[in-house]
Amino acid sequence: MTATIPAADILALSEGTHTVSIQATDSMGNVGAPGTITLIVDKTGPLTDPIITVPPDFQVLETPTVIQVQIQTTIVDGGTFPTSLVTAEGFIRGVGEPGTGFEVFATDGQFNEPSEEVFFDISTVNFPWWGVYTVSIRGKDAAGNWGPATLLRILPPGSVYQLNLPAISR
Predict the structure, then answer these.
(1) pLDDT at 64 exceeding the cut of 70
(2) Distance separating alpha carbons of residues 122 and 112, to the nearest angstrom
(3) Residue 166, beta-bridge partner list
(4) Which of 25, 73, 81, 80 is closest to 53 using CA atoms?
(5) Which has more confidence, 155 or 117?
(6) 10 by DSSP, 3-state: which?
(7) Cα angle, residue 102 at apex, residues 139 and 95 outer, rounded to 5°
(8) Domains of the chain as residue ranges with CATH
């Protein structure tokens, strides 16, 4: 026996576990034994740890020139019902709508755990030496929830500081 629960009904439920009971009646009016399942509603997206750079502190204009920096962080789907992460995305100079960023890679090669170390490489060739350069990362879990983006602000000529705050979408 199968049934479809409308998305609007699921969205109306609180986060957590809910018991769903199904009972069938045949054409003769005989009622079968109820079957039950537990439905888990997960509405919370994963959180992204503070972002770091490798090398950790660099001068954009230093000699020898640093032409590439790796951006790294860990994304965790915690809470009561953690699910595996399915993807992550990054942004440079602002945060767009969920699903519109560029691909960020799982360090182990695949998104399949509730906690994933992620990275992407960025060229420093176009870093402004006169202003703030921002990068941000966020993840998506198997339940379809995007988490808030975490920002890293790089201040030329190489001072780095981190803010573990949700980014504001445009």
Answers:
(1) no
(2) 25
(3) 150
(4) 73
(5) 117
(6) helix
(7) 70
(8) 7-41 (no CATH), 47-166 (2.60.40)
